[in-house]
Amino acid sequence: MSAGKSAQKRSYKLSGGTDMEKIRENPHWTFNHTMITPEDVSLIASLIPNTVTTLSLYNCGITIISPLKDSMPNVQTLDLGKNKIV
Predict the structure, then answer these.
(1) Pairing relation of β-strands 28-30 and 77-79?
(2) What is the pLDDT tens value at each position of the chain, 86 positions in all?
(3) Which of 57, 55, 61 is nearest to 83 (CA)?
(4) Which class for 50: exposed (0-12), middle (13-18), buried (19 or more C-beta within 10 A)?
(5) Largest Cα span, the chain
(6) Inter-residue contact 35 to 63 (CB < 8 Å)
(7) HEC profile of the chain
(8) Radius of gyration of the chain (CA)
């Protein structure tokens, strides 16, 4: 790194402000009743670690789930109820 520049920690937040770094180590990711945009779904898919066993996206207004495909190898419980997936 060049002199005068410091490493900046990248911020990973959903559109509603949820800080993904704060939940990253939790094996149960729950976003119930939180509006989730297609961009949020992509961010969740890119950040989900192998240690997550529960992903709950109940009533989040989700319309697309294709970014989640192949991103959750150890998820045993997936809740997508009350969404608008087409």
Answers:
(1) unpaired
(2) 555 556 666 789 999 999 999 999 999 999 999 999 999 999 999 999 999 999 999 999 999 999 999 999 999 999 999 999 98
(3) 61
(4) exposed
(5) 52
(6) no
(7) CCCCCCCCCCCCECCCCCEHHHHCCCCEEECCCCCCCHHHHHHHHHHCCCCCCEEECCCCCCCCCHHHCCCCCCCCEEECCCCCCC
(8) 14
- Residue tagged 């402000």 (tokens): 17
Phi, psi of 25 (to 5 degrees): -85, -5
Given CA atoms 74, 79, 83, 86 in this order, what sign does their dihedral have?
A: positive
Of 29, 39, 41, 40, the closest CA to residue 79 belongs to 29
**Cβ-based burial of 40 (10 A; exposed 0-12, middle 13-18, buried ≥19):** buried
